[in-house]
Records
---
Amino acid sequence: MKNIFCFTILFFTFFQIIGQNQKLLVKNVTVLPLHINQQWNNKDVVIDNGTISEIREHIAKDTAKYTLGIIDGNGKYLAPAFSDAHAHLPEKENLKRFFLMNLLNGVTTIRSMRGETWHLEIDESDAYTPKLILSSPPITRNDEFSEIAANKLIADYKKSGFDFAKILSIKDEKIFDNLTTAARSNEFHFAGHCPNNLGIFKVLNSDVFQSIEHLGGFFDLKGFDEINQAIDLSISQDVYHDATLDWYYTAQVPEEALRNRNGAKYLPKQLTEVWEAKIADHFEKTTDAEREAERKQSKVQFDGRLKYLNYIYQQGGKLLLSPDASGIYGIPGFGVHTEMKHYESAGISNFDILKATSYNLSEMLFSENEWGTIKIGSKSDMVLLNENPLEDIKNAQNLNGIIFHGKFHSKSELESELNKI
């Protein structure tokens, strides 16, 4: 009996020690912390139970035990993992595919922008579920709320576990005022469209908007004075801008080029069939010349969006990044890297592009000390890149692997999991 008792103590002690020593080492790597514009060479980064516990000069002969392994970072670059700040979650049967397509591209944080109740039931402890920031079901111009009804709606959303409420459209100013009053009293936030019937200044002055999507509101302004006022107000109110350029870019791309976009092979067949039906319908109703004219017009409009984004950036506006991969041949995960190239075309520096797709989202959510950067005490997911993205933003897609929930997953492992689907 005594032997059994001693064995039991040793057994549980062993697993307690193992549970407490979940360490991973990335050795001799170049660190891109992104909360500051620096590059730290030849560093060892120790992750202990998912938290960065050490960032030190490289130790050639380290005799410590690392139960989760040692990753050789020689010649590689460690940066905070990427986020998609404007995603639309698919139906349940395609959810794992969607998550893996994002992880394969270093995207470990996803902000859902069109919530459904079942999103609250997603198993966030699953090995391949990214960090989720969940919107409520969208509020639209068809919804009417008294002060009491608005307060109940927002309180219920917060209690249920939604992270913010999505504004798609609003019927009138009175309903908007009822909703924003309720949001302030419940310490809840909004994000989404800038309704045309309200205007950007009404939205920015609400004190509850986290981000305006699609550069909304700017195209209704008259002259640089109003544009500058809107940018300055967004800065003072901590409202971020998510341009979602790729959603608009695809209208200027010939259909065959869309079909051959990077990552298209991973899309579910039922989705591409819906898109192909829309393409076929459009072909039936238009001539070759008409479609070419549409593409040229779309390019003109897109170039205008690049100029607006460039000016917002030059004036110090705060940026998020997402392709809004919900349109025809928008590719989850892969589209984040396409969006980075669009931001480059808008004249944004590589450092600020990377910051827009990692640190800025955590900063907007007052979580910059928890994730979105590389510093001691952070619980950041990270990407291990084979080349320096500060030198060329295309290098951000040259992924060696990701550190996700404190564990290393190689690119080949993620590809294998995705190919199973």
---
Amino acid sequence: MTTKELVARVTDGTAYQQSQVATILRKTLDTIKRELANGGQVQIMGFGTFEVKERNARTGINPRTGEVIQLPAHKTPIFRAGKSLKEAVNI
């Protein structure tokens, strides 16, 4: 599903216009992004938790060349699904 399709589905059955829903979605995602960039986490009850995980530096292998390379330490965003989301997916 694309962002445009998501906006259209959310708009169905509401009194909001697609432009309003698109603005709300964009603002929501920007807020989550800013919170993660500041080292925080965002927990949406019944859905899941967005957080940042720190990865240690490590040695890797370039799959094309077989060359050994050093991968630097970095932070990466992760999402942990909540119980009700997991249950909805496993129906």
---
Amino acid sequence: MSVPTAQRRSYMRADDRRAQILACARQVFARRGYHPTSVADICSAAGIGRGTLYQYFENKREVFVAVVQELLDRVRSVIAQRTAVGDLAGAEAAPPQLIASYCERRLRRILDAVFADEASLRLILREARGLDGGVDTLIGELDAIVLGALVSDLQAASALGVIDCPEPQLTALYVLGGVEKMCLSALRADEPVDLDKIVSVATQVELFGLLSDTTRGKKEAKR
């Protein structure tokens, strides 16, 4: 005799069950929004009863905080594992396009950690900001970690002579603000978020500005 799905799921290990609930909750929050989502919606998506969810979380807000905490922990881990720019031998002699390609990959890795999927992206950019109960604090930590990583990269690259960046903090805010605006614009238009294109645009503006080679040559000739 086959065992009903609900009964089979009841034997899931505690860590796996918690992870399953959070994965389903992230999708539901992203699709429906935080406030319209109910505990019943999360339970339905996870295929569990309320009693099972309450074994792990006291309420909907606690589930949401745990989802955001997961994202924060993932970003911390990715950034901690990155090679420091200052440790890259020969970076100052690399050709510009190679430097740009490296910077794109480096920025993309951070964004992939923040926006592991479109649900995470929608959650962070549309639902999490401004919520109380500890959520806003976690988002602030997430912003600070990502900003700090980019500032550190800019400072190290400037010290190596790869770029000329007298204001790394403002430059990092400018780049990340632009990335967020491009993502939000796509979400509001209900269009796919092309992170490859967004990273490429952000990196090109960050490293090379908007002057064409011809215009830049004319400017240099006048000096």
